UniProtKB/TrEMBL annotation:
HAMAP family tied to this protein: Adenylate_kinase_Adk (MF_00235)
Entry similarity comment: Belongs to the adenylate kinase family.
PROSITE patterns, per database record: ADENYLATE_KINASE
Gene Ontology MF term list: ATP binding; hydrolase activity; nucleobase-containing compound kinase activity
Species assigned in the record: Melanomma pulvis-pyrius CBS 109.77
Domain of life where this protein originates: Eukaryota
Protein name, as recorded: P-loop containing nucleoside triphosphate hydrolase protein
Length: 200
C-alpha cells in the first residue's frame, strides 16, 4: 500500500479553476486514473438505488457527509485497482478539511496535493460556459454559493497539507495549454513526481 506504484494525488481548486480539464489531460498523458468527485456524485444521483436525502444534498450543492462519501470513493478506487489502475488523480477532494482524514484512512495519504489557483472572475466565466455543454445546474447562483464555500474552507486545507510539504500551487488563470505547462513544470520539480515518473 505504501509503494510508489500505488499513489493518489488530491486536486483542489475553486469551481471553474480547470480541475477537470487539466486532470483529464494529465491522466491521459501519464497513465493516471482520473476520479472526479463531482462526476461520481452526479452518477450517484442518477441511480434509482440512491437515498433521496443524498440526491437532494448533491442537487442543492451542499457537501455530502464524509461517512457517505468515503465508502463511495473507496468502492470506485478498489474497482479501479482490480482493473490495474494504481495511480489516481482525485479531482475535487477534499472540499473541507474534516473530509481528509477518514478518506486517507480508507485509501492512503496523498503523494501530492495540487492547488489550482484561479481568480474569481476567470473561474466564474469558465463555470458559466458549462451551461452551454449540458451542465444545467451550473448557474451564477450556484457559482457564488460554491465559490464562497471554497473561499471559506480551502485555506485550512492548503495549510494542513503545506505543513506536510506536499502542496503545489499552480496558477491556472491562463489558457489550457499555458496552465498545463505550468502544471507539468511544477510537478517535474518535485521528488515525489520524479519517483512516480520512473514507474510510468
Amino acid at each position: 500500500m505504501d509503494s510508489a506504484a500505488e499513489s493518489i494525488i488530491f486536486i483542489i481548486g475553486a469551481p471553474g479553476s480547470g480541475k477537470g480539464t487539466l486532470c483529464k489531460r494529465l491522466a491521459e498523458e501519464y497513465g493516471f486514473s482520473h476520479l472526479s468527485v463531482g462526476d461520481l456524485l452526479r452518477d450517484v444521483t442518477s441511480s434509482s438505488n440512491t437515498d433521496v436525502t443524498i440526491i437532494d444534498t448533491v442537487k442543492s450543492g451542499e457537501l455530502v457527509p464524509v461517512e457517505v462519501l468515503a465508502p463511495m470513493l473507496k468502492g470506485r478506487v478498489d474497482k479501479g485497482k482490480e482493473d490495474g489502475q494504481m495511480k489516481i488523480l482525485l479531482d475535487g477532494f477534499p472540499r473541507r478539511l474534516d473530509q481528509a482524514a477518514p478518506v486517507e484512512r480508507l485509501l492512503r495519504s496523498p503523494t501530492l496535493v495540487l492547488f489550482f489557483d484561479c481568480p474569481e472572475q476567470i473561474a466564474e466565466k469558465r463555470f458559466l460556459t458549462r451551461m452551454l455543454t449540458g451542465r444545467e445546474a451550473d448557474d451564477e447562483q450556484t457559482f457564488r454559493k460554491r465559490y464562497q464555500e471554497f473561499s471559506r474552507l480551502n485555506p485550512s486545507i492548503v495549510e494542513h497539507y503545506r505543513t506536510r510539504g506536499i502542496v503545489l500551487e499552480i496558477d491556472t488563470s491562463g489558457e489550457t495549454e499555458v496552465s498545463y505547462q505550468r502544471l507539468i513544470s511544477a510537478l517535474k520539480g518535485t521528488g515525489a513526481w520524479r519517483s512516480l515518473a520512473a514507474l510510468m
